[in-house]
Design goal:
A hairpin with a 2-residue loop joins strand 1 and strand 2. This protein has a 6-stranded parallel sheet, with helices on both faces. Helix content is 47%, strand content 21%. By secondary structure, the chain is of the alpha/beta class. The site of uridine-5'-diphosphate has 15 residues, from helix 9. GO terms for molecular function: hexosyltransferase activity. This is Acetylglucosaminyldiphospho-UDP acetyl-beta-D-mannosaminyltransferase.
Length: 194
């Protein structure tokens, strides 16, 4: 089921299979799910930061977001079917959410980028339920923002606080939620904001 690259267990899946067999059923069943998408830079970061490594190892699924990981797996004789990029998973989840009535919280990036990303998501995915949004420049020790996300009762939480910070935020807060698919999305709001 997984392929281990530098102590990180990558889930052995294609994008379509991951969505169909994991994400969509978890949304339908209101199961909690912490997804990490990791590229080689990310894996190297876990080597240098043991606390971060523990956070990544606590995720339900780590996806290979980079050909570097796919190539490393192939050299080890344990091929992964394809690269599964975080931003593509985010787009597919937004599409599925809009079509099935799941709500999404957008946490992270600058206020301007966050606002534009949400506006573009609503345009690209008509009917999308936005549970809420907030920029990513807050003190994580201040629980007010997390309270707000919890109270919005989202089905999906995209966290764009940059590598490490976003995964730590999810790991620190996921126990407070009854349901939700949580994923760190790095610079994806900056892309979605156009
Ligand atoms: N970001 C944020 N709060 C922070 C630091 C970064 O919201 O304290 C956002 C930043 O605006 C960007 C995203 O996180 O939209 C990814 O940042 P960056 O590319 O620096 O992170 P990386 O994932 O490359 O480490």
């Amino acid at each position: 089921k997984t392929v281990t690259v530098m102590d990180i267990d990558f889930f052995n899946t294609s994008m379509n299979s991951f969505l169909r067999h994991i994400v969509y059923p978890d949304l339908a069943n209101e199961s909690k799910n912490f997804i990490v998408t990791a590229n080689p830079e990310f894996v190297i970061e876990t080597r240098d930061h043991p606390e971060f490594k523990k956070v990544v190892q606590s995720a339900d699924y780590v996806l290979a977001d980079g050909v570097g990981i796919v190539n490393a797996a192939m050299l080890m004789g344990r091929p992964l079917p394809e690269r599964v990029s975080g931003i593509d998973v985010m787009y597919r989840m937004l599409d599925h959410a809009a079509k099935n009535g799941y709500s999404v919280f957008f946490l992270g990036a600058s206020e301007d980028s966050n606002k534009k990303a949400v506006a573009n998501a609503e345009k690209l995915y008509p009917g999308l339920k936005v549970a809420g949004r907030h920029d990513g420049y807050f003190d994580p020790a201040d629980t007010e923002i997390a309270d707000m996300v919890v109270e919005s009762d989202p089905d999906i939480v995209f966290v764009a606080l940059g590598m490490q910070r976003q995964e730590k935020w999810i790991a620190d807060n996921i126990d407070r939620f009854d349901k939700g698919v949580f994923m760190g999305v790095g610079g994806s709001f900056d892309v979605l904001s156009g």
